[in-house]
Write a structure and sequence with these properties.
Helices cover 34% and strands 37% of the residues. With 146 residues, it is α+β, with helices and mostly antiparallel strands. It has a six-stranded antiparallel beta sheet. The two termini are 21 Å apart.
């Protein structure tokens, strides 16, 4: 069970991030989770929006000159307690699955944090999660966040 993520390449220049978020806000697109990674020349902004906004968001970004793409990630419910994330990381490590990156969601559910995972092998990761009682947040559940 995957969710959609949008990745945008930005120049490392003052104001580029606020320009991006202004464009999205002005067009009614709500950012539900976001991660920023930078290098010396550019940054990668990864974010999650509601499914109904994915295609419009991607088209809007491209129409405004942004290099953007959509891919799939996993959003896992992680117990919000000492060792909650560690348990999942150890399970993935034991299965030989690399974590390409992860970041947290701007929303929590009960006593669970929501963590976005990009894994080297998504199918194997989902299997590990299922076998170990780690539930994942569906795209439908993300769409219903208020």
């Amino acid at each position: 069970m995957y969710i959609h993520q949008i990745t945008v390449f930005l120049e490392n220049m003052k104001g580029t991030l606020s320009k991006l978020t202004t464009l999205l806000a002005d067009n009614g697109i709500d950012i539900l989770a976001m991660s920023i990674a930078d290098t010396s020349g550019f940054g990668l902004v990864r974010f999650i929006v509601r499914e109904k906004d994915n295609d419009a968001c991607l088209a809007l970004l491209k129409a405004n000159g942004y290099s953007a793409r959509k891919n799939h990630v996993i959003c896992a419910r992680v117990p919000n307690e000492a060792g909650g994330l560690n348990k999942i990381l150890c399970l993935l490590d034991a299965a030989g699955i690399s974590i390409e990156y992860l970041y947290s969601f701007n929303y929590s559910e009960g006593n669970n944090a929501l963590i976005i995972f990009r894994l080297s092998d998504r199918e194997a990761g989902l299997k590990i999660f299922a076998e170990n009682g780690i539930s994942v947040f569906s795209q439908t559940e993300i769409n219903s966040i208020q």
